[in-house]
Specification:
This protein has a 6-stranded mixed β-sheet with strand order 3-8-7-4-5-6, sandwiched between helices. It folds into 2 domains: 121 residues, Rossmann fold (3-Layer(aba) Sandwich); 115 residues, Rossmann fold. It has 11 helices and 11 strands. By secondary structure, it is an alpha/beta fold. Helix 8 packs parallel to helix 10. The protein is elongated. Helices cover 40% and strands 21% of the residues.
Length: 243
């Protein structure tokens, strides 16, 4: 049983390490690379909180040396992992949502903030937080601070393993990752191989582009979190090996 991890670095290696601890062999095949953008931040004074939908935003803020002036803000994180990374970065007041943009919007709306929300985000957004929070009387200032750039080709080791039927499952964590993987894998997989390849996905939203591209063997985690993905990977590996 070998699995393919499609996350960007450094998350690829972190997930591979967790899989190794479960005695699951894995190959890294990041389909995107993070690039920090030249962002023009508004004055920090006046913001009631900051929203985070990815640890990549924290990494970009660190690259830009902006973290020190932001540490006084209350942070609303999309999930436990992002919340954990925010605390490690020095933020003292951190609230975690349930792993989706909808749950984050609900959490922020219920907080009844008295001021705008700063949202350092990626260039490619999966949802419009500003529009979602507007009916609640909250203004969101979205500042793109990073971009996830698609790779043009899967690593050769991953291509060979996929084509040779050596991959027992592919871990996919975002919708855009799914879209890019489907395009890149089309060059080394037949339609029959795509239909047979198990795709372990964080959510239905993540899985949608794969189903549209004829990857029909899709498994979903119980919750949009790394812990749930590891539980899914372990259960699937045990089922396949009979252990």
């Amino acid at each position: 049983m070998r699995m393919l991890v499609t996350r960007p670095e450094p998350d690829t290696q972190a997930t591979m390490d967790r899989l190794a601890a479960l005695d699951i062999s894995a190959i890294g095949a990041p389909v995107m690379t993070r690039q920090t953008l030249e962002a023009h931040f508004p004055p920090i004074i006046g913001f009631a909180a900051m929203a985070l939908t990815s640890t990549n935003a924290l990494r970009a803020l660190e690259d830009m040396d902006l973290l020190p002036q932001l540490l006084g803000l209350k942070v609303f994180a999309v999930g436990d992992r992002t919340a954990h990374e925010a605390r490690l970065a020095g933020f003292g007041d951190v609230v975690s949502a349930e792993g989706t943009l909808d749950s984050l919007v609900t959490t922020i709306a219920l907080a009844r903030l008295e001021g705008p929300v700063l949202y350092p985000a990626g260039r490619h957004l999966s949802g419009d937080m500003a529009r979602a929070l507007a009916p609640h009387g909250l203004m969101v200032v979205t500042v793109p601070v990073y971009e996830m750039v698609a790779e043009e080709r899967l690593p050769e080791a991953a291509r060979e393993a996929l084509a040779g039927g050596e991959i027992g499952g592919v871990l996919v964590y975002s919708r855009r990752t799914a879209e890019i993987f489907a395009a890149l894998a089309a060059t080394c997989l037949s339609d029959e191989q795509k239909r047979a390849l198990p795709m372990l996905c964080l959510s239905e939203n993540v899985a949608a582009p794969l189903l549209a591209n004829h990857f029909s063997r899709v498994l979903l985690s119980d919750h949009p979190s790394e812990e749930a993905m590891m539980a899914l990977a372990l259960a699937f590996a045990r089922e396949q090996t009979g252990s």
